[in-house]
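Subject: design request, 188 residues
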């Protein structure tokens, strides 16, 4: 039940971000989770392993589940990938999401649905995909600032004391040949 709840929280978070105008963040999260699921399915095909309740006679599943594809844990992988993305902008949120993902992994081991190595494999995969997603996001953000210098200029201006926010009439040429307005920091 916790796994279904966590998946619902992930979907609700993506929908919320899309509704409040953060479509790029929602799309980024959706793409990250989709990549996690694709890689998990590929690894499951390479290393097929039945779940503990299907393989070990002394383990009972606490909830109904199909017996195939135990490694790696998709729930933990997607939870930690989302935690990496959320933690970039909101560290406390990321830490909370990571804690929930680890708790979910422990519950799935206790329920007889995963081996501890499934959880560790999912954690490594989730962290790797989350790190790649963060890197791609940072690269895209840096590229956006380079191609739209006005965004960088307005960000810099907004952090200056009001008396220092003066606009210079001079324009300089950038390495790409486009004209960039320069901003000076002179007290009035």
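Subject: RE: design request

Done. Sequence follows.
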């Amino acid at each position: 039940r916790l796994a279904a709840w966590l998946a619902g929280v992930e979907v609700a978070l993506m929908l919320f971000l899309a509704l409040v105008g953060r479509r790029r963040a929602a799309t980024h999260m959706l793409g990250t989770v989709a990549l996690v699921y694709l890689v998990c399915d590929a690894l499951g095909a390479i290393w097929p392993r039945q779940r503990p309740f299907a393989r070990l006679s002394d383990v009972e599943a606490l909830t109904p589940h199909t017996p195939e594809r135990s490694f790696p844990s998709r729930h933990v992988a997607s939870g930690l990938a989302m935690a990496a993305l959320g933690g970039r902008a909101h560290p406390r949120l990321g830490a909370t999401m990571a804690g929930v993902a680890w708790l979910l992994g422990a519950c799935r081991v206790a329920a007889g649905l995963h081996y501890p190595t499934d959880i560790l494999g999912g954690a490594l995969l989730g962290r790797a995909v989350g790190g790649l997603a963060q890197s791609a996001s940072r690269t895209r953000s840096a590229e956006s600032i380079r191609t739209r210098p006005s965004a960088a200029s307005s960000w810099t201006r907004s952090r200056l004391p009001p008396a220092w926010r003066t606009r210079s009439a001079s324009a300089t040429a950038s390495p790409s040949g486009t004209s960039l307005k320069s901003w000076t920091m002179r007290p009035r």
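The chain has seven helices and two strands.
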